[in-house]
Amino acid sequence: MDYKTILTVLSSSADAKRTIACAARVARAQDAHLEVLVLGVDRTQMGYSYLGTEAALMQVGIDRAEADISALQAEVTAALAAEGSDLRYSVETEISQLGAISDLVAQHARYADLVVQPLPYGANTGSEAEAVVEAALFEGKAAVLVHPVTGLGQNAQPKRIVIAWNQTAEAMTAARRAMPLLKAAELVNIVMVDPASSAAAPAEPGALLCQMLSRHGVRAEVSVLARTLPRVADVLNQHARDQNADLLVMGAYGHSRLREAILGGTTRYMLEGALVPVLMAR
Predict the structure, then answer these.
(1) What is the mean pLDDT of residues 261-278?
(2) Mean pLDDT of the chain
(3) Are 117 and 132 within 8 A, CB to CB?
(4) Are 132 and 102 in contact (CB under 8 A)?
(5) C-alpha to C-alpha distance for 123 and 118, rounded to whole angstroms
(6) In the beta sheet, which residues pair with residue 224?
(7) % the chain with pLDDT above 90
(8) Is the pLDDT assigned to residue 3 strictly greater than 50?
(9) 278 vs 198: CA distance, rounded Å
């Protein structure tokens, strides 16, 4: 499968320019069409209003969302124009209440081969950023390429890729969704952190995935690491830096989103502090 439709959803000007630049680079590298959804968020919470004020509050919320979306659309238009005439793209605007973002994003993500978004957690991000990424992963069933504040680095087509492998269905889905990038990479490193040993596990951890990728023409190798840092996410970040990786591929949310939100988890920590671009799927 090739990436022929790239989607990015923008609801804030904080990362709009950088995200447009990242998505445009991916679209060019893949000879794909870039779809930009500009989202105006109506944050009105009717449950906290006084009786008889609902209509007025709704109008205020809509007016604010329209003003926000108008300003953001102008910024997006300028950013796309700066990318040059060789980029194929389309822009759509939508206003949505915060609770309805998941359904709206899912409708668009289902028809995209790849969704490009900034890290959803940070000082300048709102709750809608998290809702967008999770809607694309869960309801949209799309692969999501999340870029850190440094963008995509030097290579729109990653030359060195690390796959975080733990033999789960989510990790396998991510590896399959990343196949166009894996096949074009110079080297793919399959990394396992403290792999569990059992009678059902292969004698050499990661060997079966390495074999599968090799049959697709992927140049792959396997690394087995001890958990020498407090969190698996820390080990993955450090390994990606040691490998000079352009991309980390991993399965998303092996546990429930609620559990990860409360207790933490590898997905949550990577969405907060990834040092390289991360392609996630589940």
Answers:
(1) 82
(2) 87
(3) yes
(4) no
(5) 13
(6) 192
(7) 65
(8) yes
(9) 29
Q: Check residue 207 and give its pLDDT.
A: 93
What is the mean pLDDT of the segment spanning 229-254?
94
State the pLDDT at residue 151.
86
Cβ atoms of 40 and 30 closer than 8 Å: no
Is residue 168 over pLDDT 80? Answer: yes
Q: Which two tokens stand for residue 13?
A: 């000007």
User: Cβ(28)–Cβ(89) under 8 Å?
Assistant: no
Q: Do the beta carbons of residue 274 and residue 187 sit within 8 Å?
A: no
Residue 275 dihedral angles phi and psi, to the nearest 5°: -95, -15
Count of CB atoms situated within 10 Å of the CB of 226: 8
DSSP letter string, the chain: ----EEEEEE--STTHHHHHHHHHHHHHHHT-EEEEEEEEEE---GGGSPTT-HHHHHHHHHHHHHHHHHHHHHHHHHHHHHT-TT--EEEEEEEEEGGGHHHHHHHHHTT-SEEEEE-S-STT--HHHHHHHHIIIIIS---EEEE-TTTTTT-SS-SEEEEE--S-HHHHHHHHHTHHHHHH-SEEEEEEESPPP-TTS-SSTTHHHHHHHHHTT--EEEEEE---SSSHHHHHHHHHHHTT-SEEEEE--SS-HHHHHHH--HHHHHHHH-SS-EEEE-
With a cut of 90, say whether residue 183 has pLDDT above it: yes
